[in-house]
């Protein structure tokens, strides 16, 4: 495998993840003021994103804090995952699949407990890239510079040889601060052009 490396985010890049309004629907259903769900669950969401709580305990906290019975918890979590997982960005996924063997490929994603199992089952990202680094498995989130270091360590690559793709500007800035090249994802066309330029610059002359 060559030293040239491309690392991608998942949500908003490899997955198309528009807001579905599921939280507001639950607040209406439960006659709660807007914002109540996130206010009550904020520390649980945070714990889930850095692996400090299990999926089982997330469900228990949802039941306890929102007053839901078991079938309601199952429905609530199904709505959460439906928005989280979105739909595959087929064009970009197909392009990245075509890069296998020509560069090192990785994923660095802010995530939630249970994401690896669901994304593997739905999208087979584990077959798309060499390594997937999830925040809930390493205990830290982007834009923490250590998250980018963890991704490079996992792939055994140098940051200066990596192009990082993310749809959040602060994460792009952090990747650059970590020594990577970085691109803010806005659409497939410009992202594919940027990846191609990165690979061309890194290819042997």
Automatic annotation (TrEMBL):
Pfam families: Hydrolase. SUPFAM superfamilies: HAD-like (SSF56784). This is HAD family phosphatase. It comes from Streptomyces tabacisoli.
């Amino acid at each position: 495998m060559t030293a040239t490396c491309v690392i991608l985010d998942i949500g908003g890049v490899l997955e198309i993840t528009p807001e579905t309004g599921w939280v507001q629907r639950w607040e209406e259903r439960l006659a709660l003021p807007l914002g109540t769900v996130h206010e009550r669950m904020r520390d649980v969401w945070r714990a889930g994103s850095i692996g400090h709580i299990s999926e089982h305990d997330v469900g228990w906290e949802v039941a306890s804090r929102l007053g839901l019975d078991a079938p309601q918890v199952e429905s609530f979590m199904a709505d959460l995952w439906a928005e989280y997982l979105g739909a595959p960005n087929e064009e970009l996924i197909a392009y990245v699949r075509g890069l296998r063997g020509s560069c090192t490929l990785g994923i660095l994603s802010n995530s939630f407990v249970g994401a690896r199992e669901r994304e593997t089952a739905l999208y087979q990202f584990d077959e798309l890239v060499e390594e997937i680094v999830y925040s809930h498995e390493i205990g830290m989130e982007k834009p923490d510079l250590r998250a980018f270091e963890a991704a490079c360590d996992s792939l055994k690559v140098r940051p200066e040889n990596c192009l990082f793709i993310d749809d959040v500007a602060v994460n792009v800035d952090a990747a650059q601060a970590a020594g990577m090249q970085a691109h803010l994802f806005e659409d497939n066309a410009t992202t594919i052009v940027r990846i191609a330029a990165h690979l061309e610059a890194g290819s042997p002359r």
